[in-house]
């Protein structure tokens, strides 16, 4: 360590806390002026500490602590906001298809609904194991494959010989599907016979892959 010779003129500063003094540090003859912290004319409030004088950096330290705490609170708020948003969507979709999805994990979610009429599409993938056993007796749920009407509405048929639905749902060999016709002209919400005889679509379709434990959710409003 290099010894630096300095001239320190100290006096009690007005308004200083007890034990604090104000000092002016100047390099003595032959001092190393390359140390920027000891530049001529530099004034800083110092406090006795361990036989030496150290700058009073309590204000800086407190500010760092405050900023660190603020960032932690902000990060926690963002995380909680994401959890709340995911839980809200799982609850909404679960209610729509008659399932409890509170224990599921939302893997993918897209929603384009908006505008004056609220038209748009919603597509989601939920990881939820163990749902297959209870689906057979629930309203609107039937074993795959889908009917021709439902399959045509979503762009494909899910089943052993089926193709992908909307290009995003993979082929499902074993599972169940759900259909709900939400159109105001529908007499039976679980009947798909009149699905293509109108000028607009308002329906919800879901498909559950029993082997993978994944639920694919889709709703369309035009």
Short structural description:
The chain is built from three helices and ten strands; from the N terminus they run ββββαββαβαβββ.
Helical fraction: 10-25%
Order of strands, main sheet, comes to: 5-6-10-9-8-7
CA-to-CA gap between the ends? 77 Å
What number is the mean pLDDT?
73
Order of helices and strands: EEEEHEEHEHEEE
> Structural class from helices and strands?
alpha+beta
Name the poorly predicted regions.
Answer: 31-40, 48-53, 77-82, 156-165
Rg, rounded, reads 35 Å
The largest sheet is: 6 strands, antiparallel
Instruction: Give the overall shape, derived from the CA principal axes.
Output: elongated
**Strand share of the residues?**
25-35%
The number of helical segments is 3
Number of strand elements: 10
Provide an overview of this structure:
There is one protein chain. With 222 residues, the protein is α+β, with helices and mostly antiparallel strands. The protein contains three helices and ten strands, in the order ββββαββαβαβββ. The protein has helices spanning 58-97, 132-135, 148-154, and strands at residues 6-11, 21-27, 42-49, 52-55, 105-111, 120-127, 141-143, 175-181, 202-209, 214-221. The strands form two sheets. The chain has a six-stranded antiparallel sheet with strand order 5-6-10-9-8-7, covered by helices on one side. A four-stranded antiparallel sheet has the order 1-2-3-4, with no helix packed on it. A hairpin with an 8-residue loop joins β5 and β6 (120-127). The radius of gyration is 35 Å and the shape is elongated. Mean pLDDT is 73; it is low at 31-40, 48-53, 77-82 and 156-165.
